[in-house]
Each structure stands twice: as structure tokens, then as C-alpha cells.
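[job 4471] stage=fold_predict status=RUNNING
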Amino acid sequence: MKTTIKNILLVDDSENDIRLIKTALHEAHLGNEIIVAEDGEEALDFLYKRGKFAEFNSDIPVFILLDIKMPLMDGIEVLKIIRSDMSFNKIPVIMLTSSRDDHDLKECYENGANSFVVKPVVMKDFMEVVKELGQYWVVINELPR
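[job 4471] inference complete, writing C-alpha cells
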């Protein structure tokens, strides 16, 4: 049986957070390509292979790291669309956000988020959390085939 290394979809509008997340996942020794979408619309473009991702040839991601507060379309709207589409509704979606709002937390879980993680403020802690997330969702967790 051939093993395919699926990519990770990172959806975040903060250049600094994107850089830190990519570095942390690399330091976790994951061989997955990290695809970056800078807003919710780009995330959907990637999943539906349109716009700048129209020629992108890849399978669905192994998991999605999804921020909530973004321009154009927020992460909760993206989550709702992902969960309503049979092609994508089994992809683990981890909300990685700076929001500590109880309403956001509740809404994410009500709409099918697999996890809600608040971004730590201290860079070292942020990096460790992302490494652990990557290790769990890529190495430890078993997904249906």
C-alpha cells in the first residue's frame, strides 16, 4: 500500500503567526507540505481548487488549522461550509485563534470543530502548542480511509 503524505491547510491572516506556525511544524519533523490561505475565501479556493489554487494538484488536507478573526470571511463561516460539504466534512478542523470569547468557543463546537486552541501569547509556548498539534493530528490520530 502506497503512503501519501497529505498537506496541512493553514488559514490565518497574520504573517507573524503564519511564520511561527510553519516553523513549529517544521521543527516537529513533519513531512507534510503546509498550504497557506490568508483568509476564508482563499481556504475555500484551495479546497474547491479554484482561483490561485485552480492548478494545484493535491488531495484533501490531513487537517486544517483555522483562525477565526479574518477579513473577507471569518473562520466560523469557513467551518460551516466545510462541515456542510460531504467532500470535506471529515477533515479535522482545529480552530487556532486568539479569541477567548465563550460565544466563539461554543459556536465552533456547535458547527463541528474538532478542537479549539487559544494561541498562547508567549512565543515559546505558541511554538510548543503548534508542534504538539501537528504531532497529534499527523502522527497519532487515525483518520478514516
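[job 4471] summary: Strands lie at 8-11, 34-37, 63-66, 93-97, 115-118.
[job 4471] exit 0
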